[in-house]
Design brief:
The chain is of the alpha/beta class. It has twelve helices and twelve strands.
Length: about 325
């Protein structure tokens, strides 16, 4: 992974944009949408940036670049078409440990911006590390068509109800199971306003109980990740605990690819096959969903006969 994906809070923070043309305008629009305090440094401003300056949306320094202008900023965006100047700004920023992005020059970027799908407060960001912007644009269009506009209101509603769920359920597992049931309910998928969401939420909250049933999913891995069954992938992403066998370097590298597909915050334990039964049953009794990843047919057969009350996914 070349870049660490993060969402950065720039609300009311100082950001510098070097350049005053069309590219700068696009960057400024993005920064203003995140409520940053934007300063533009350029000898000239295009019409859009001039209007922003006149309306006091941005601060403008009408001058050429000089390193003394690098002040108390959390990040710097460089948008000029002068490659020598761009490299100079990048070097100056690096010396001051300032995050810097040079447009269309990924080798001079300490951070890059992804393609964004905005369903505020929900945001989805995708990136190719700057290698294939056309592919990312294509994927974003596909995702935009799949994701309903109601995701934003649903996310806002869930945020408003978090405290009620915390008061109702004492454990993180119980709260997560409740939200999974709520988000997957048919009534929520068909809801078009907050009132409908509220009625379904109240109903789910009243009918839910605090008992959490555990389960064990035994999954025999195929040769390649793209051959993984959809149901297996869904269960891997729902599991609380991931158990898997380490069986030699080549096998470990292969299994690691499958482990990466599991839920990000699930606990992950490489164990000997003889440890699976005891560990899996103990975690199941605690109400957790345990996913056991099996590499060989022999291991799969042994564990199928050893573990009790399992949901086997061949």
């Amino acid at each position: 992974m070349q870049y660490l994906p993060i969402f950065m809070d720039v609300n009311d923070k100082n950001v510098l944009v070097v350049g005053g043309g069309e590219v700068a305008s696009r960057k400024v629009d993005l920064l203003l949408s995140a409520n940053a305090k934007v300063t533009v440094l350029s000898p000239r401003l295009n019409d859009t940036l001039q209007r922003y300056r006149d309306n006091a949306k941005i601060t403008a320094i009408i001058d050429g670049y000089h390193r003394d202008y690098l002040g108390d900023y959390v990040m710097v965006w460089v948008t000029t078409d002068n490659t020598l100047l761009n490299k100079q700004v990048w070097q100056d920023c690096c010396e001051r440990n300032l995050l810097v992005n040079v447009a269309d020059q990924p080798e001079l970027c300490e951070f890059i911006t992804p393609s964004i799908i905005d369903r505020s407060p929900l945001q989805i960001a995708i990136s190719s590390g700057g290698l294939s912007p056309v592919l990312i644009r294509y994927l974003r269009e596909k995702l935009e068509a799949l994701l309903p506009e109601t995701l934003g209101p649903l996310g806002a509603f869930a945020g408003e109800q978090r405290e009620r769920v915390k008061q109702k359920f004492s454990s993180v597992t119980e709260r997560r199971r409740f939200w999974e049931r709520f988000f997957s309910s048919k009534a929520v998928s068909l809801a078009t306003d907050k009132g409908q969401l509220q009625r379904e939420f109240d109903l789910q909250l009243m009918t839910s109980h605090s008992d959490v049933d555990g389960d064990i999913y035994l999954i025999k891995l195929p040769d390649e990740t793209d051959l993984l069954r959809l149901r297996s992938l869904r269960l891997m992403q729902q599991a609380d605990v991931i158990l898997y066998v380490e069986d030699g370097d080549d096998c470990n590298e292969r299994i690691a690819d499958f482990v990466e597909l599991c839920r990000r915050d699930a606990e992950r334990y490489p164990l000997l096959s003889t440890d699976f039964a005891t560990q899996a049953q103990a975690r199941k009794q605690q109400g957790e969903r345990v996913c056991v990843l099996i590499n060989s047919s022999a291991q799969f057969e042994i564990l199928t006969n050893t573990l009790e009350a399992i949901s086997v996914v061949a």
